[in-house]
Specification:
- The chain is an alpha/beta fold and about 500 residues long.
- The protein folds into 3 domains: about 140 residues, Rossmann fold; about 240 residues, Rossmann fold; about 100 residues, ANL, C-terminal domain (GMP Synthetase, Chain A, domain 3, 2-Layer Sandwich).
- Helices cover about 30% and strands about 25% of the residues.
- The strands form 5 sheets. Strands 1, 2, 10, 11, 12, 13, 14, 15, 16, 17, 18, 20, 21 and 22 form a 14-stranded mixed beta sheet that branches. A 5-stranded parallel beta sheet has the order 4-3-5-6-7. The chain has a 3-stranded antiparallel beta sheet with strand order 8-9-19.
- β23 and β24 form a beta hairpin.
- The termini are far apart.
- The mean pLDDT is about 90.
- This is Long-chain acyl-CoA synthetase.
């Protein structure tokens, strides 16, 4: 059973829907690996789209529903998807930028999602003249062929700011079994066990997506939280006797900020296995959550490209404060110096890793980028760290510019490329600074043209028209001249130092 607000659907009913949706997709020409674009919040329809496209051997392309028209158009064009399934309330932000030939299927925005996001009733309905997902799906005959199976294609940005589609190669049956074992270790989700899964993070992200679909394949009770709220989360745990969750450290921070009487109000004794990842968790936050919820907090380190090679339990976190774990079955972690030689124990270097029990990946249509990302069969996660004598991994620094804010990867180059196109901006630099709630937040330094009348509000409005809101820096400072290296490249480390010294406040 899947539960969302006051709605619920049995596995029998949703599998019947999936068979009809697969028949409909085939009628649209979705087969032979043709991708299907999907811009949906966590809803029954999401599971229908993912499973129906997979049945035809076609990858679903989950699209972050914060993205704007140009960003979505790029992903659709690059992936080759000519079908898009989208919630009704998300249409206004992308409609004008959609390719004319797109086959658009619109899902009515359900009441619990509308309430959580303050969506006006008129925007929840399928617009006149557009294809209603439910009506379209139910008019098709169910697919009766044996399902082919297929993995989603997630788009992840590179240092150039241009998103790249991560495409997994097909897995033979023995590899599928091994991948299931890894899922049981890292996520705690196992077949033939009574488990209640609370989905509190958006399934357009690769980790919540793989977590939710693993729960779906194992027939777990799945509870969908329309939008994360700390007290609502506690209420749902108590009401549904939740056993398992996937979380990010920002959620922990918000939970710990609840008043003590609120935290004590709810019965959380059903919790058995909580896993978190996406960003480093401060030691004091981790310890406080273990003290509150007990030794049920587990952590992994991985990426869309690498899979999950590194994991650890609550006991290990308390014994090795600050670690992000050690290699599990199939996991490989190596630390390299700039010259390509391997680091000694305790010596910091760039982290390369891979989960070899899942299939390798390609960057869709970008073999060069795939080759560049590879080192000795491993992939860099862009961090600097070291392994201790027991094989536990510790993070030291970020090698690349990527900012992780609230568990979301943000690449400053994408923001800089947009901002440099604004009249009055001579140059700019965007980087991450520490944030108590989100881990990091965006900070922008702008060098204006002489005589320009730029303002913080004007820059933010300009960026919101081009980029998802979470990519718009809240902190913007103007500088007469940005610090530069001898090559002319902006010296971001110097800007970070100035911030730490309080000179950019």
């Amino acid at each position: 059973m899947i539960i969302s607000g006051d709605r619920q659907i049995s596995y029998g009913d949703i599998h019947a829907r999936i068979a009809r949706a697969a028949g409909g997709f085939r009628a649209l020409g979705v087969q032979g690996g043709k991708p299907v674009g999907m811009m949906l919040r966590n809803d029954f329809a999401l599971f229908e789209v993912v499973a129906a496209s997979a049945a035809l051997g076609s990858p679903v392309v989950p699209i972050n529903w914060h993205l704007k028209a140009d960003e979505v158009a790029y992903i659709l064009s690059d992936s080759g998807a000519d079908t898009l399934v989208c919630h009704a309330d998300l249409l206004p932000q992308i409609r004008d930028g959609l390719p004319p030939a797109i086959k658009l299927l619109v899902v009515t925005t359900p009441p619990e999602i509308a309430a959580a996001y303050g969506v006006a009733p008129a925007l929840t309905r399928v617009p006149d003249g557009m294809t209603d997902w439910d009506v379209w799906r139910d008019k098709h005959q169910p697919l009766t062929d044996a399902p082919i199976g297929g993995a989603p294609m997630f788009y992840t940005s590179g240092t150039t700011g241009l998103p790249k589609g991560v495409k997994r190669k097909p897995m033979p049956s023995e590899q599928q079994a091994a991948a299931a074992r890894v899922g049981a270790i890292t996520y705690g989700v196992k077949p033939n066990e009574k488990q209640v899964i609370l989905m509190n993070g958006p399934m357009y992200h690769s980790a919540p997506h793989s977590y939710g679909m693993l729960a779906f394949r194992n027939g777990c009770v799945i509870v969908l939280e329309p939008r994360f709220d700390p007290e609502d989360l506690l209420q749902l745990i108590e009401r549904h006797r939740v056993t398992h969750m996937h979380m990010v450290p920002t959620m922990f921070v918000r939970l710990l900020r609840l008043p003590e009487e609120t935290r004590r109000r709810y019965d959380l004794s059903s919790l058995r296995f909580i896993v978190h990842g996406a960003a480093p968790c401060p030691v004091d936050v981790k310890r406080a959550m273990i003290e509150w919820w007990g030794p049920v907090i587990n952590e992994y380190l991985g990426s869309t490209e690498t899979g999950i090679p590194v994991w650890h339990s609550s006991a290990e976190a308390l014994a090795k404060p600050g670690t992000v774990g050690r290699a599990i079955e199939g996991g490989i972690v190596k630390i390299f110096r700039p010259d390509g030689t391997q680091c000694d124990v305790g010596e910091p270097g760039e982290i390369f890793m891979r989960q070899k029990l899942i299939s390798d990946f390609d960057y869709h249509g970008n073999a060069k980028a795939r080759a560049e990302a590879d080192h000795d069969g491993l992939i860099s996660v862009g961090d600097v760290g070291y392994l201790d004598a027991d094989g536990y991994l510790f993070l030291c620094d970020r090698k690349r510019d990527m900012v992780i804010s609230g568990g979301v990867n943000i690449y400053p180059a994408e923001i800089e490329n947009a901002l440099i196109g604004m009249a009055g901006v001579r140059d700019c630099a965007v980087f991450g600074v520490p944030d108590d709630e989100y881990g990091e937040r965006l900070f922008a330094c702008v060098e204006p043209e002489a005589g320009s009348t730029l303002s913080v509000a004007a820059i933010q409005d300009f960026l919101r028209d081009k980029l998802a809101n979470f990519k718009v820096p809240k902190d913007i400072r103007f500088m007469d001249a940005l610090p530069r290296e001898a090559t002319g490249k902006i010296f971001k480390r110097k800007l970070r130092d100035l911030y730490r010294e309080g000179q950019l406040g």
